[in-house]
Design a protein that fits this description.
The protein is of the alpha+beta class. It has 2 domains: 17-332, 2-Layer Sandwich (BirA Bifunctional Protein, domain 2); 342-428, 3-Layer(aba) Sandwich (Rossmann fold). Helices cover 41% and strands 20% of the residues. Helix 14 links the parallel strand 12 and strand 13.
Length: 430
C-alpha cells in the first residue's frame, strides 16, 4: 500500500482545542441572541437530492457551479448542501402541520467548491436564522435589529448595506433593458463595489446593452433615497413602485429603531436568484475581513412554489458567517483560551484525586488530572496551557485533610480543607 500524504483539502480545516473553544463561544453567544428573539433550534440534513439543490426555486445557476455532486450505490444523484436555506424550505414543505409563523435557527456545516480566500472556505459552518409565514417590514426590521445585536454580543462593530430586489429590478427595467437580461444585469451589478463601474460595463458587453441605458442605470445608483422617492413615487412601473414603497417603509422602521448601522445601497443585489424583496450584507467596520461577514434577505417564492397548494409562504432569513467571525475574533485574541480551570497532581494518592475531581466536576469546574508527568514538568505544562490553578495531593495532604491551591498567575497559595468543596470552588471562581 502506498504511503498516504497527510494533508487537508484546500479550504478545509481541523480545529484544535484552543480554536474549537473559541468557535463554541461564538456559537453559544449567537444562540442566546437568536433564542432571545424567539428563534428555536433546528437541524436539517447535510446530504440532499441534487434535484432539490438544483431546483429553479433554489439558489440559481451561479451557486450550482459550486455544488459538490455525489452518486450513491443506487445511482441516485445527490449533493452536499451549499447553504441552510434550501434544506429549511424542504423542512417547511414536508411538515405542513407546523404552526406559522415558524422561526428557526440552525448552525451546521455547508460545502461549496468555490474560490478560497480569507473568510471563505470550502467546508464551513453557517449560522442561519429564518422565519416563514409572515410578510411586511416589521419582521424585516426585527431581523436587522437581531443582526446588529448578534454582532454586538461578539464585540464586532459592523455596518449593514441593504436594498430591495424589486427596487433594483425596477430601476433596471426603467432604463429600457429587456426582461430577459435583468437577472444577468443584477449578477454583474452585484459586483459593482468590487470591480467598479468599468468592470460591470465590460461584463455586460456580451448582452449588447447600449451605453445610453447603462449610463441611465448608473445615474440611478447615485441617487439617495429621497431623490429616488421624488423621481419614482408616481411611476407606472409597478415593480419599481412596490420596491420603492417597501424601501421607504423599512427605512422608517430603521430610523425609529435607531439602527444607525444600516446603510441604504441601491445597487446591492445579493447574487442568489432566490431573493424577492429586502436584501442585506454585513461588513466589519475595521475591514479586518473585506468580504461580507453576514447576509440575508427575503425569499418568498421558494417555499410557496415547493408546496404549491395555493397559499403564500413568505420567508425571510440571514446567515452569520462563522468563518469570518472566527478569523476576526482570533485576530483580536491576545490570550490563549483557558482549556481547564484546575490541574490536580496526584503524588501517590490517585483515589483521593479522582474523588476531589469528580466532586468539582459536578459543579461545572473543568478539571484535568495529571497522570504521567513529574511535578516540575506538570507545573510547566500548566503554565504553557494557561491553567489558572493547581492542587497537589499527596499523603501529607490526605492525612492532614489540608490542601494548597496554587494560583499560577500570581504564585499565591490558598490553604483549605480537602473536603471543603464549596471553599475550593469559591477560590477557583473568584
Amino acid at each position: 500500500m502506498d504511503k498516504v500524504e497527510l494533508k487537508n483539502i484546500k479550504g478545509t480545516f481541523d480545529y484544535l482545542p484552543n480554536e474549537q473553544i473559541l468557535k463554541n463561544k461564538i456559537i453559544n453567544k449567537l444562540s442566546k441572541v437568536f433564542e432571545s428573539y424567539g428563534y428555536l433550534p433546528l437541524e436539517t440534513t447535510t446530504l440532499c437530492y441534487y434535484d432539490l439543490l438544483a431546483s429553479k426555486y433554489a439558489g440559481g445557476a451561479e451557486i450550482l457551479k459550486e455544488v459538490y455532486k455525489l452518486e450513491d450505490q443506487g445511482k441516485r444523484n445527490l449533493g452536499l448542501r451549499y447553504d441552510l436555506t434550501v434544506p429549511f424550505a424542504k423542512v417547511i414543505s414536508m411538515n405542513k402541520g407546523l404552526s406559522l409563523p415558524f422561526k428557526r435557527y440552525e448552525i451546521g456545516k455547508v460545502y461549496r467548491d468555490g474560490p478560497v480566500k480569507l473568510g471563505r472556505n470550502r467546508e464551513f459552518y453557517q449560522c442561519d436564522v429564518d422565519v416563514c409565514g409572515i410578510q411586511g417590514r416589521f419582521i424585516e426590521a426585527e431581523l436587522l435589529s437581531m443582526a446588529v445585536n448578534g454582532y454586538k454580543s461578539l464585540g464586532i462593530d459592523i455596518y449593514i448595506e441593504w436594498n430591495n430586489r424589486k427596487l433594483l429590478s425596477g430601476l433596471i427595467s426603467e432604463c429600457g433593458i429587456e426582461e430577459e437580461y435583468i437577472s444577468k444585469v443584477i449578477l454583474s451589478v452585484d459586483k459593482l463595489a468590487k470591480i467598479g463601474e468599468d468592470g460591470v460595463r465590460e461584463e455586460l458587453k456580451e448582452y449588447n446593452i447600449d451605453n445610453i441605458k447603462l449610463d441611465k442605470l448608473f445615474s440611478f445608483f447615485k441617487l439617495n433615497m429621497n431623490e429616488l422617492k421624488e423621481r419614482f413615487i408616481c411611476t407606472n412601473n409597478n415593480t419599481l413602485k412596490e420596491g420603492l414603497e417597501e424601501v421607504l417603509e423599512l427605512s422608517n422602521y430603521i430610523e425609529k429603531l435607531g439602527l444607525t448601522e444600516c446603510v441604504f445601497t441601491p445597487y446591492l443585489a445579493r447574487g442568489l436568484e432566490i431573493y424577492t424583496g429586502v436584501v442585506f450584507e454585513v461588513f466589519d467596520k475595521k475591514k479586518r475581513i473585506t468580504s461580507s461577514i453576514g447576509a440575508g434577505g427575503r425569499y418568498d417564492k421558494i417555499i410557496t412554489n415547493f408546496i404549491d397548494d395555493g397559499n403564500e409562504y413568505p420567508a425571510l432569513g440571514m446567515t452569520f458567517g462563522l468563518a469570518p467571525i472566527y478569523e476576526i475574533l482570533n485576530m483580536e485574541s491576545m490570550d490563549k483560551e483557558v482549556l481547564y480551570d484546575l490541574l490536580i497532581i496526584p503524588m501517590g494518592c490517585e483515589i483521593e484525586s479522582l474523588n476531589l475531581a469528580n466532586k468539582l466536576r459536578s459543579s461545572n469546574v473543568k478539571v484535568v488530572i495529571e497522570m504521567k508527568k513529574k511535578l516540575n514538568k506538570s507545573l510547566d505544562w500548566a503554565n504553557r496551557n494557561n491553567i489558572p490553578y493547581v492542587i497537589i495531593i499527596g499523603e501529607n495532604e490526605v492525612n492532614s485533610n489540608k490542601i494548597k491551591i496554587k494560583d499560577m498567575n500570581n504564585s499565591t497559595e490558598y490553604e483549605v480543607e480537602l473536603d471543603n468543596i464549596d471553599k475550593i470552588i469559591d477560590i477557583i471562581r473568584k
